[in-house]
TrEMBL record:
Species the sequence originates in: Methylovulum psychrotolerans
Name listed for the protein in its UniProt record: Dihydroorotate dehydrogenase (quinone)
Keywords noted in UniProt: Cell membrane, Flavoprotein, FMN, Membrane, Oxidoreductase, Pyrimidine biosynthesis
Primary localisation category: membrane
UniProt GO BP: 'de novo' pyrimidine nucleobase biosynthetic process; 'de novo' UMP biosynthetic process
Top-level taxonomy: Bacteria, Pseudomonadati, Pseudomonadota, Gammaproteobacteria, Methylococcales
Sites where the protein binds FMN: A63, G64, L65, D66, K67, T87, N140, N173, K218, T246, G269, G298, Y319, S320
Length: 337
């Protein structure tokens, strides 16, 4: 039974950040009381094997919806093939002042400038330990807003070391537009040095702990062809395990004239779809299957997901589509496979 069409007008009457919190709390309650299990259809498996992991299906939850890992079990019960939590930073931080989250229903889009609001990695890891979920769990790590960009690698190394024992894979987020200069880490020698240090530490942790945890890099849609090629070459030469394409866009061309178009932040949902697919296609051409691609950006229907898979992705992730379509989106995408 799909209750979301009934709930959506009520949620959309609330300011977006309140709606976000209310929805997750409702979902948690529905899960704990067994109500969610009654209303969620059982989904057939569509296994995908990449990065040495078996995903029960190719539809994942994108990072940023459960930044602190507070809702892992309730979200997993919606049928996702994998869940990515975070972005989490070494120390807790409040994020940007509110309002920082905006809905654009006319465009099936969202603008956010949350700014990595989170309770810190220690809290998140505690939540992972407390959860009953045994499926694939990605932990997405970032840097604190007040860590100088020159020291960014230190924050990522803290995240990598702490998350390593509990993550199925770890995502290096260098593509949020809401932390000053973060996207600089996608360029030239900065990305090369960062990847080199993280890869070295991953291999050391593998030796030390006897378990290999894949390392994934998440990139922006706002990259030139040259930048896409450069990143792809580095992913290959440092044997990075996967790439997520893409994060939100700072481009506003697709929502020009909208009252909220001038809000600072990352735009997601339908308006980023084409740009994200373009990046997936560009990566696929360079990578030739050597590094698997996880696609995100504007997946709001089964067809959107298929477009991403046809462009060369092995898995997809959704965020904005869930806001507009509800959890039924997962079943729809799987039915379209
Ligand atoms: C409110 C909001 C918060 C987000 N926070 C994060 C985050 O913390 N880390 C991250 O890697 N991506 C974050 N994202 C980006 C999504 O994970 C995803 O890459 C992007 O929204 C494109 O997918 P979509 O069009 O399905 O939303 C966020 C997106 C939204 C809408």
């Amino acid at each position: 039974m799909n209750l979301y069409p009934l709930l959506r007008p009520l949620l959309f009457a609330l300011d977006p950040e309140t709606a976000h919190e209310v929805t997750l709390k409702l979902l948690q309650t529905a899960h704990r009381t067994g109500l969610a299990q009654l209303t969620t259809p059982r989904l057939a498996d569509h296994p995908v094997e990449i990065m040495g992991l078996t995903f029960k299906n190719p539809v994942g939850l994108a990072a940023g919806l459960d930044k602190n890992g507070d809702y892992i079990d309730a979200l997993a019960a919606l049928g996702f093939g994998f869940i990515e939590i975070g972005t989490v930073t070494p120390r807790p931080q409040p994020g940007n002042p509110k309002p920082r989250l905006f809905r654009l229903p006319e465009h099936q889009a969202i603008i956010n400038r949350m700014g990595f609001n989170n309770l810190g990695i220690d809290h998140l890891l505690q939540q992972v330990s407390n959860s009953a979920y045994h499926g694939i769990l990605g932990i997405n790590i970032g840097k604190n807003f007040d860590t100088p960009i020159a020291d960014a690698a230190d924050d990522y190394l803290i995240g990598l070391r702490k998350a390593y024992p509990l993550a199925s894979y770890i995502t290096i987020n260098i593509s949020s537009p809401n932390t000053q200069n973060l996207r600089q880490l996608q360029q030239g020698d900065e990305i090369k040095n960062l990847i080199a240090r993280l890869k070295e530490e991953q291999l050391r942790l593998h030796q030390e702990q006897g378990r290999y945890v894949p390392l994934v890099v998440k990139i922006a849609p706002d990259l030139s062809d040259e930048e896409i090629r450069h990143i792809a070459q580095l992913l290959k030469s440092y044997a990075i395990d996967g790439v997520i394409a893409t994060n939100t866009t700072i481009v506003r061309a697709n929502i020009a004239g909208h009252a909220l178009a001038k809000e600072t932040g990352g735009l997601s949902g339908a308006p980023v779809k084409e740009q994200a697919t373009y990046v997936v296609r560009g990566l696929a051409a360079e990578l030739n299957g050597t590094v698997p691609i996880i696609a995100a950006g504007g997946i709001i229907s089964a067809e959107d997901a298929q477009e991403k898979l046809a462009a060369g992705a092995s898995l997809v992730q959704v965020y904005s589509g869930l806001i507009y379509r509800g959890p039924q989106l997962v079943a729809d995408v799987l039915a379209g496979l």
